[in-house]
């Protein structure tokens, strides 16, 4: 019945209750007794439906999988605000969280607002988006910046939006949405800085609920780099010594951390200042530790273009484990499934498969950017 929630708000009719009354054997209700035999009067309400999805708008709205903790969620409330969601923490207190996988679509919730006019409903929709919180420690990305950006765009206010409007205006919408949601999160930071509003988590540390970390120019960080596989024997030999560095944020161009952070940094890694851009990719997923990341700057490495379940590993790739296997451009390597849609990952050029990524097997979920294989170019006869 989720698909009828918008209609229910406009017409002020509970469709589920109405159907139960009409078809229950012990009920004598009819359309006439329920005042539904005649066409309903023209509604005096305006309703706006905001579809919150687990998608990454900056990566072609690709699916963002992972786990959402029940303590990380805060839903909007109030008169004229309705939330239809399967992330229902109030009804199932024993649940600690929910997993967003690849088998179903990305819809997390429908936030429906209703008011007397379009302007009032728009204002209420903005407030509802400001009240929604998904804590920053959650690795799920959502389209909330898109929803907030649309509500703020002049074309929404002037009612000049059409079918292809979002594709043409996505960057402007994202910029508006990030500024609005980011400003809201900074306000939360200021509030939580007040001693009386500090909350303690289970381990006694300050709980950061639904806000971005405040980073400012001049912030100084100590960075220590140590091989993860180093052992005491290696350390004693001196071949795997830890390297310590200092990083200073000389300037910040865009701060929506941890979703996005860019600017200029100075460090002991380089004698010259370095421009950097940090953006959080789609969420980490189950079994992500069993794979290896691809070098996105290496054209020979084939990476998973999105997070999804591996439904097929081509025989060519399986045979490559036992030795170099020739592959032709466009030949299927693996098939990924996400949101009931399949994506074929193909060989980018003719070549020989030099290496197969770790953990590739049917039925597991692979994260975006993980290595599929390395294809070394070589001439292959098409005859």
Task: Characterize the structure shown.
There is one protein chain. The protein is α+β, with helices and mostly antiparallel strands and 383 residues long. Helices cover 22% and strands 30% of the residues. It has eight helices and 21 strands. The strands form seven sheets. A four-stranded antiparallel sheet has the order 10-11-12-13. Helix 3 runs antiparallel to helix 4 and helix 4 packs across helix 6. It starts with a helix and ends in a 6-residue tail after the last strand. The relative contact order is 0.10.
Short account of what is shown:
The chain is of the alpha+beta class and about 375 residues long.
Structure keywords:
single chain; 383 residues; alpha+beta; D-amino Acid Aminotransferase, Chain A, domain 1; OB fold (Dihydrolipoamide Acetyltransferase, E2P); 3 domains; 4-stranded antiparallel β-sheet; 22% helix; 30% strand; globular
Could you give me the name of the CATH homologous superfamily of the largest domain?
Answer: ATP-grasp fold, B domain
User: Any idea what the CATH architecture of the largest domain is?
Assistant: 2-Layer Sandwich
- Uncertain ranges: 196-212, 230-237, 282-286
The CATH topology label of the largest domain is D-amino Acid Aminotransferase, Chain A, domain 1
| Overall domain count | 3
CA-atom Rg in angstroms: 26 Å
Strand content: 25-35%
Helix/strand order = HHEEEEEEEEHEHHHEHEEEEEHEEEEEE
Which structural class do you get from the secondary structure elements?
A: alpha+beta
Shape descriptor reads globular
Say how many strands there are: 21
Distance between the termini: 56 Å
Helix content: 10-25%
Q: What order do the strands of the largest sheet run in, or round the barrel if closed?
A: 10-11-12-13
Main β-sheet: number of strands, strand sense, barrel status? 4 strands, antiparallel
The CATH class designation of the largest domain is Alpha Beta
Total number of helical segments?
8
In round numbers, the mean pLDDT is 78
């Amino acid at each position: 019945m989720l698909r009828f929630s918008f209609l229910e708000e406009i017409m002020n009719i509970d469709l589920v209750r109405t159907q139960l009354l009409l078809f229950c054997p012990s009920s004598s209700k009819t359309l006439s007794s329920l005042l539904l035999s005649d066409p309903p009067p023209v509604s005096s309400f305006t309703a706006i439906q905001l579809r919150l999805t687990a998608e990454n708008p900056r990566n072609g709205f690709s699916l963002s999988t992972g786990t959402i903790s029940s303590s990380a969620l805060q839903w909007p409330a109030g008169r004229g605000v309705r939330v239809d969601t399967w992330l229902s923490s109030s009804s199932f207190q024993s649940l600690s969280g929910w997993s967003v996988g690849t088998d179903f679509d990305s819809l997390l919730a429908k936030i429906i607002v209703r008011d007397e006019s379009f302007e009032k409903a728009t204002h209420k929709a903005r407030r509802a988006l400001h009240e929604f919180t998904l804590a920053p420690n959650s690795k799920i990305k959502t389209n909330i910046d898109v929803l907030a950006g649309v509500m703020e765009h002049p074309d929404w206010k002037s009612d000049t939006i059409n079918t292809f409007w979002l594709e043409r205006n996505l960057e402007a919408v994202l910029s508006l949405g990030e500024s609005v949601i980011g400003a809201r999160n900074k306000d939360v930071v200021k509030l939580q800085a007040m001693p009386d509003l500090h909350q303690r988590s289970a381990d006694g540390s300050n709980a950061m609920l639904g806000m971005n970390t405040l980073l400012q120019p001049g912030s100084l960080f100590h960075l220590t780099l140590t091989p993860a596989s180093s052992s005491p024997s290696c350390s004693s030999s001196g071949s795997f010594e830890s390297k310590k560095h200092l990083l200073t944020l000389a300037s910040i161009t865009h701060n929506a951390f941890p979703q996005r952070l860019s600017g200029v940094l100075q460090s002991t890694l380089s004698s010259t200042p370095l421009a950097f851009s940090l953006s959080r990719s789609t969420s980490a997923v189950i079994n992500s530790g069993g794979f290896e990341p691809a070098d996105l700057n290496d054209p020979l490495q084939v990476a998973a273009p999105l997070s999804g379940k591996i439904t097929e590993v081509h025989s060519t790739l399986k045979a490559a484990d036992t030795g170099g296997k020739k592959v032709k451009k466009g030949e299927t390597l693996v098939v990924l499934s996400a949101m009931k849609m399949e994506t074929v990952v193909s060989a980018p050029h003719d070549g020989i498969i030099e290496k197969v990524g770790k953990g590739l097997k049917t039925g597991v979920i692979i994260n975006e950017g993980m290595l599929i294989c390395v294809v070394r170019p070589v001439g292959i006869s098409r005859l």
